[in-house]
Write a structure and sequence with these properties.
CATH topology of the domain at 34-208: Thrombin, subunit H
CATH class of the domain at 34-208: Mainly Beta
Shape: elongated
Largest sheet: 6 strands, antiparallel, barrel
Strand order of the largest sheet: 1-2-3-6-5-4
Radius of gyration: 39 Å
CATH architecture of the domain at 34-208: Beta Barrel
Strand content: 15-25%
């Protein structure tokens, strides 16, 4: 009787444990199934890219987000999420992506799905785990697996699972026995692979949108708007960089709208968007943003300056069709209003640009002189002051002194960024008759840029300055460099013949001038140089014949040489 009772009790407890286990597993599966979603993505033209699985998690900030595979998001402009109850919603903002590891994270509107708890620990080799695979209509299949490998690299775990690859598992959660997510199932390299792979859930922490994400190719290739960085300064920098990298104007404008919504009293969002609208000819929208910014923002000087900058740039474009009073005078007025509200040299620089563009050169020179008496003095501002003073008819000594100041601002030895200023000063020295100084600057420029990067025109100008400075060996060397680049240029050959004549190389001068004569037989210079050289060589009759020809072709100086031979 006792044995029979024990047998009955044993059967009862076995049945009870089996029932409880089945009940518990069913409850976990049902709840977990609500955390899994199906995702389908499409391009901007509506064509389908792909479908995959994803699942909900809770971020450190307490937000509900979806993790899935990156591959179906590449070039996607839309992602539709279907939860376990059949409810559809759209991906709202991408919060992180990595093409290499095939993982993406994003938010959705009105996320009602419960998140998986994230495991604190990692799995080891030999541990059991569960892959939760969706079956449709909220049902899931629990697939028990064993961890075969769990190597770590840079703090991330890469799990290898003893199970044949199954494309339908990509994006599914890998759970520990407590139902906590420990990894994301990845696409296998080949469909015939005998292994399944997962990346540890700790990778989720590395997914984010930061300032430099604007240049992240993984994020650039998704055309769904991205989440802004949490810190305002980083968000502004991200948007600024986005204009230089993004092909996706929808995402850019969405991010600007997000910024304005989050920071409604910061001028940056309004002025940045206004610049975009103005650049695309949507002037009324740009004007509305400037007006709104002036209403709600405290930094009104920055708004006026931003508007002045945009109007200035518009009026530099010949294709611009003027909108209302958006001309250079309005640009100047906006810069003056900015300076009246905040007397910053930065706003004076904008005023100087506007005055120069309006050809009010004397006022522009005075404005840059004000700037260069502050900590904002720079090579560029000295250069601008010099050009404005030159245009205003200022003294050449002052013009050159300002160019000296522009070059002096650079540390010695000079580097390539100083090269444009050195070249401009060389040209100005040449123009005002300071030929030795010009020759020195031309050589400095050549040293900075490199001989191989310079063209024949540069070497001709350098040779001409050296010739006028009576630096004949250097002049001959540089005109030969010009001819090496462009051997059939008549002017270069005449220059070389002239230098050879000046240095007493008369036979070479005759040869060079004869080469020039073959290119243009009707120009008097070649005949005159041949005549002069032949005369110096004692070949008077040939010399007179060439000088006579030069005179007949219009060179009156040739007649003086003829008379001197008589």
């Amino acid at each position: 009787m006792i044995n029979h009772s024990r047998k009955v009790l044993s059967i009862f407890f076995c049945f009870l444990f089996s029932y409880l286990y089945a009940f518990s597993a069913g409850a976990v599966d049902k709840k977990a199934g609500l955390s899994i979603v199906k995702i389908s993505t499409a391009k901007a033209d509506g064509s389908t890219i792909g479908e995959s699985t994803g699942f909900a998690i809770k971020t450190a900030e307490g937000e509900i987000e979806i993790l899935s595979v990156y591959s179906i998001f590449k070039h996607a402009a839309k992602a539709t999420v279907t939860d376990a109850k059949g409810k559809k919603t759209q991906a709202k903002r991408i919060t992180g992506a990595n093409d290499l590891y095939d993982v993406v994270r994003f938010t959705v509107d009105n996320a009602g799905m419960p998140p998986f708890p994230i495991a604190n620990g990692k799995l080891s080799v030999g541990n059991k785990a569960i892959i939760l695979k969706p079956q449709g209509k909220g049902k899931t299949q629990s697939i028990e697996v064993t961890i075969a490998e769990a190597p770590e690299h840079s703090g991330l775990t890469y799990y290898t699972i003893d199970r044949a690859a199954d494309g339908a598992l990509a994006g599914c959660p890998l759970l520990n026995n407590n139902g906590e997510v420990v990894g994301v199932i990845q696409r296998s390299p080949t469909s015939e692979s005998s292994k399944t792979y997962a990346i540890g859930i700790e990778f989720n922490e590395a997914l984010e949108v930061s300032t430099m994400s604007a240049a992240d190719i993984s994020l650039q290739n998704i055309y769904i708007p991205k989440q802004l960085p949490a810190v305002k300064e980083q968000a502004a920098s991200y948007i600024y960089l986005l204009t230089r990298n993004a092909k996706d104007t929808l995402s850019y404008l969405t991010n600007l709208a997000d910024f304005i919504e989050k920071y409604p009293e910061d001028f940056f969002g309004y002025t940045e968007r206004a610049e975009f609208y103005a650049g695309t000819g949507q002037y009324s929208l740009a004007e509305a943003d400037y007006d709104k910014a002036l209403q709600v923002c405290s930094d009104k000087a920055d708004v006026h300056n931003a508007m002045s900058t945009v109007l200035y740039n518009l009026n530099q474009n010949k294709a611009y069709q003027q909108y209302k009073d958006w001309d250079l005078n309005r640009a100047l007025s906006e810069s003056e209003q900015a300076y009246s509200l905040n007397p910053s040299p930065l706003f004076l620089m904008q005023k100087g640009k506007c005055l120069y563009a309006l050809r009010r050169y004397a006022e522009a020179a005075d404005t840059y002189d004000q700037i260069n008496k502050t900590s904002f003095r720079s090579s560029e501002n000295y250069f601008c002051q010099s050009r404005a003073l030159e245009k205003a008819g200022g003294d050449s000594t002052q013009v050159l002194a300002l160019l000296d100041s522009a070059v002096v601002m650079f540390a010695r030895p000079l580097r390539s960024e100083a090269a444009p200023y050195v070249l401009y000063r060389a040209n100005q020295y040449n123009r005002y008759g300071y030929y030795k100084e010009a020759a020195v600057d031309y050589q400095e420029y050549e040293n900075l840029i490199g001989t191989k990067k310079l063209n024949d025109v540069f070497f001709y100008n350098k040779s001409d300055a050296e010739l006028r400075a009576r630096l004949y060996p250097q002049a001959l060397n540089d005109i030969e460099k010009a001819l090496a680049v462009n051997p059939n240029e008549y002017v270069y050959l005449i220059q070389k013949a002239l230098i050879e004549t000046r240095t007493g190389h008369f036979e070479e001068a005759v040869f060079t001038a004869t080469q020039a004569q073959k290119i243009d037989p009707n120009d008097p210079d070649s005949y005159k140089l041949i005549g002069i050289s032949l005369g110096e060589m004692g070949r008077k009759s040939e010399a007179r014949a060439n000088l006579q020809k030069a005179y007949e072709l219009g060179d009156t100086e040739a007649l003086e040489w003829l008379n001197s031979m008589k």
